[in-house]
Design a protein that fits this description.
Blueprint: H1 11-14, H2 26-40, E1 44-55, E2 61-66, E3 71-76, H3 78-81, E4 93-103, E5 108-118, H4 123-138, E6 155-160, H5 165-177, E7 182-187, H6 195-216, E8 225-230, H7 244-251, E9 257-261, H8 269-273, E10 276-277, H9 281-288, H10 292-324, H11 331-372, H12 378-421, H13 423-428, E11 433-435, E12 453-457, E13 462-466
Parallel strand pairs: 3-5, 6-7, 6-8, 8-9, 9-10
Antiparallel strand pairs: 1-2, 1-4, 2-3, 4-5, 11-12, 12-13
């Protein structure tokens, strides 16, 4: 049986020791070297550049760490690389911690990596950039996937920590700005190990509630928009929102998602995947809770626009009627309407002059009173004069409105009378107007001859006729 040499003896003494001069097998020598390396270099830091990186289907990593004059084989088992927050690439300068060992099948010594940190850039930043680029290449951040937010959401879902400041800020903003928006809260951890999975679970939970409400036809339980976020923090604090699981849960949501993570300078993977990014949770709440006063102002403006549109429609219809009323039988109607319009304009002018005189007189009296006031009582008397002036002005305005309303009433009566006297009303009762080819009215049967062409005006349309016979009554 072969024995391993006593490595502690001097080399000269080993030359005369029969046991030392016995040969070793390759396996024995390799095993001895491995034991020596592992005992001497059980924990070592190595810095260099990664090359020949390969990720095996088993989950293990194999690569080489090199510098200008040497290289070292390295491997990182799946149990260790699952804790590394970035994916190594060729050319990346890293600092690796591990233990030296020997791969006995080839006799190569190698570094078994247990920890890996990039040099010159944070691991979280590299992981962020790699995940962002990969998901962007996949199309997860495409603009065409972004959905618009509802104008007036009625129910808002919130995913955040139940103990953080974000939920308080969101509820404060919503309660202050509106009383019509309801909140459905799904609590989740937003920091620490497993926070990303907890956030994704909360997003899916609210979506399941939304889908059940859709199937049940319960419109009041539908979620219109979903806020996912937390307050600001360090890059490590925001790590949960930089995970792929959260980004895919946001993109798979059937509800439009607002990402409200951190402060204005913080960007996360969740911000890119969401339909809209808000710089803070409070800003997200402001987006979904419009002030009721703004809604009322918008409705008032829409009402005014509708009124203007209706007036335009009425004027346009009136213009078309006037264009169609080109026959001579409408001259009298147009004349009476013109006179009524002139009278209305005249009455309006007279009322305006009266208002101007009243206002001018009131101002003159106010100026005279102000001139007569002493400096000590000037402010008090000036206030009283302004009140009397406002009263007089309001009275004049009321008088104007009354006279305008009276003029409108008279105009309406005149229009009704004109309508009663209109030939069109007579035509509606079944009568017709006959004219010869020159447009002259036919009042006597003797005015036409057999074979003449005549025109007959009805309530709706005209007829071209020929006289076949003439009868006298």
């Amino acid at each position: 049986m072969l024995r391993r040499p006593k490595m502690s003896q001097p080399l000269f003494a080993a030359l005369f020791d029969e046991t030392e001069r016995g040969p070793m097998t390759v396996s024995e020598l390799t095993s001895a070297v491995r034991n020596a390396l592992e005992a001497r270099f059980s924990s070592v830091w190595v810095e260099g550049e990664i090359s020949n990186f390969k990720a095996h289907s088993s989950g293990h990593w194999y690569f080489t760490i090199k510098d200008e004059s040497a290289q070292l084989r390295a491997k990182c088992f799946r149990s260790a690389n699952s804790r590394i927050r970035f994916r190594p690439t060729d050319g990346l300068h890293v600092r690796a911690r591990g233990r030296l060992s020997v791969y006995e099948a080839r006799g190569d010594y190698e570094l078994v990596v247990e920890a890996l940190d990039p040099v010159g850039a944070g691991a979280l930043r590299i992981a962020f950039e790699q995940l962002r680029d990969r998901l962007q290449a996949e199309g997860l951040f495409a603009k065409e996937l972004k959905r618009p937010l509802p104008v007036f959401p009625r129910r808002v879902g919130i995913v955040t920590s139940p103990t953080g400041a974000a939920i308080r800020d969101i509820l404060n903003v919503i309660s202050r700005r509106t009383r019509t928006v309801h909140v459905l809260f799904s609590p989740a951890r937003v920091q620490g190990d497993g926070a990303g999975s907890d956030i994704a679970r909360a997003i899916r939970l609210i979506n399941e509630h939304h889908k059940r409400a859709e199937r049940a036809g319960s419109a009041d339980d539908l979620i219109d928009v979903l806020i996912v976020g937390r307050g600001g923090g360090s890059t490590e604090d925001l790590r949960a929102f930089n995970q792929e699981e959260v980004a895919r849960a946001i993109r798979a949501s059937a509800i439009p998602v607002i990402s409200a993570v951190g402060h204005e300078t913080d960007f996360t993977i969740a911000d890119f995947a969401a339909d809209l990014r808000a710089p803070t949770p409070s800003a997200a709440a402001e987006l979904v809770a419009a002030q009721e006063s703004q809604i009322c102002s918008t409705l008032a403006e829409l009402g005014r626009s509708l009124s203007r549109l209706m007036r335009f429609k009425i004027v346009d219809a009136r213009t078309r009627v006037q264009e169609h009323a080109f026959s001579q039988v409408f001259d009298e109607v147009r004349s009476r309407m013109r006179n009524a319009r002139i009278e209305t304009n005249s009455a309006t002018h007279r009322m305006q002059l009266q208002v101007n005189r009243a206002v001018k007189g009131a101002r003159g009296r106010a100026d005279a009173i102000s001139f007569q006031l002493s400096p000590a009582r000037l402010q008090s008397r000036l206030t009283n004069a302004r009140m009397r002036f406002d009263t007089a002005y309001n009275s004049c305005s009321g008088l104007i409105d009354t006279q305008l309303e009276d003029a409108r009433s008279r105009l309406g009566l005149a229009a009704a009378s004109l309508d009663a006297l209109s030939p069109l009303a007579v035509l509606e009762r079944g009568y017709a107007i006959a004219q010869d080819q020159s447009g002259n009215l036919l009042r006597d049967a003797q005015s036409a001859s057999v074979g003449d062409s005549i025109r007959v005006r009805l309530a709706r349309g005209r007829l071209e006729a020929r006289v076949e016979s003439i009868e006298e009554t």
